[in-house]
Design brief:
25% helix; six-stranded mixed β-sheet; alpha+beta; 413 residues
């Protein structure tokens, strides 16, 4: 029986999808359960499996084209089956806009692989001859004219990922994506927004228009946390980051501050008895917030392990929908960029977000004496519909206590 393949809804904020790559061409046989097409949503790149077996009779949306949620993108049917009615019922698909010519990029050449490297690289091939690689790795390889077969994959099952392409570039950062290509002096250009940037624009506008923001900042003595982290890194093979410690500290604090760990629902608020903490991760064309669930129940080492995995897959646009939704609180850390302090916009429907600055070495007063210390400024953006100034201040006061006494974050029961 002939069936239409529709653009799926891959996230709660997705309104349209972009076709990244068709795995088959018209006329090819397709088996149920096989990956049919790679789709870019506003959060991640997803692989859509075929729900039926048959022949890929018609592709409505070419690679690079867009389709709204539920719109037909293909037809799968038997070889001799009449699909005339399905074709008539399908509205015409808008043509794909021609992309502006890219600036000439330097050609990156790689030496022929040695026998040892050839063996390693062969593990990245599927039995059908197609190289296993993330969509982002393919994009970077194409932009830099790198042959994927010459790259050894370090991802799951030998999959080529972003860091493998960067390694092939000799450790140099890859060029900026086309959306950030430099503008010729004296000219102007229009750049179409990516799906993720469109979603960010919509949600942040909604947040600022509907949630009355206010901001509370506190400075924290980070020397105890620095010593604590150093001790942890002597024990654990995987290096603990300050973000890992901060996630645990926020989760612990949220458990005693339900007004902050809450969502505004019009005539009521929903308070959560768990801490699902999202961490903002910067991508080339925006940011995504993978969610660490039930952080109040997890130790710092486990948070470190899960966060590393989520960040890696977020940057390769391989998060599942339930991995970037359902947070009760968000942390945005720009300290690694040397930012001292900033104000973050609440990520709806959450009630608050914590903006984290860098750890700064500066003169401080301790016991009446001026000495050199290390401090960090954090700012809580709060929704005034459910959070008052005193509530936000007490939350930051307790967070400060946990970070200045990090032994409180270690369970001894």
């Amino acid at each position: 029986m002939a069936t239409k393949v529709a653009m799926p809804k891959l996230s709660d904020t997705m309104t349209e999808g972009v076709i990244l790559k068709w795995r088959y061409k018209e006329g090819d046989k397709v088996k149920q359960g096989e990956t049919l097409v790679e789709i870019e949503s506003d959060k991640a790149d997803m692989e859509l499996e075929a729900f039926d077996s048959g022949i890929l009779r018609k592709i409505f949306v070419a690679e690079g084209g867009k389709a709204a949620i539920g719109a037909p993108i293909a037809i799968i049917a038997e070889a001799n089956e009449d699909i005339t009615a399905l074709l008539k019922d399908t509205p015409p698909t808008p043509p794909v806009k021609a992309q502006a010519a890219e600036p000439q990029r330097p050609v990156v050449t790689t030496p022929p692989p040695s026998p040892a490297n050839t063996a390693a690289a062969s593990t990245t091939q599927r039995t059908d001859g197609r190289i296993k690689a993330s969509p982002l790795a393919r994009k970077l390889a194409t932009e830099n004219r790198i042959e994927l077969r010459s790259v050894s994959g370090s991802g799951p099952q030998g999959r080529v990922i972003k860091r493998d392409i960067e390694a092939a570039l000799g450790g140099k950062r890859s060029p900026l994506p086309q959306s950030y290509a430099p503008v010729t002096p004296g000219t102007a250009q229009d750049v179409e927004l990516s799906p993720i940037r469109k979603t960010i624009a919509k949600r942040m506008t909604e947040s600022k228009q509907t949630a009355p923001h206010f901001y509370v900042t506190v400075e924290i003595d980070m020397e105890p946390a620095m010593a604590f982290r150093e001790q942890l890194n002597k024990i654990y093979e995987s290096k603990i980051s300050f973000t890992d410690i901060l996630v645990k500290a926020c989760a612990t604090t949220l458990m005693s501050h339900p007004h902050v760990n809450a969502t505004y629902l019009g005539d009521k608020m929903r308070q959560y008895g768990y801490a699902h903490v999202a961490v903002a991760v910067a991508l080339d064309d925006g940011l995504v917030t993978p969610v660490l669930r039930n952080c109040e129940q997890k130790g710092i080492a486990r948070i470190n392990q899960e966060l590393r995995d989520l960040v890696e897959r977020a940057r390769n646009r391989k998060l599942k929908p339930d991995e970037y939704s359902g947070a009760t609180f968000t942390i945005s850390n720009l300290g690694m960029f040397g930012v001292d302090e900033f104000l973050a916009i609440i990520n709806p429907p959450e009630g608050a977000i914590l903006a984290v600055g860098s750890i700064e070495e500066k003169p401080v007063v301790k016991a009446g004496q001026i000495t050199i210390g290390h401090t960090m400024r954090v700012t809580l953006s709060a929704d005034h519909r459910i959070i008052d100034g005193a509530v936000a201040a007490r939350f930051l006061q307790d967070l400060k206590t946990h970070l200045e006494n990090p032994v409180s974050l270690v369970s001894i029961s």
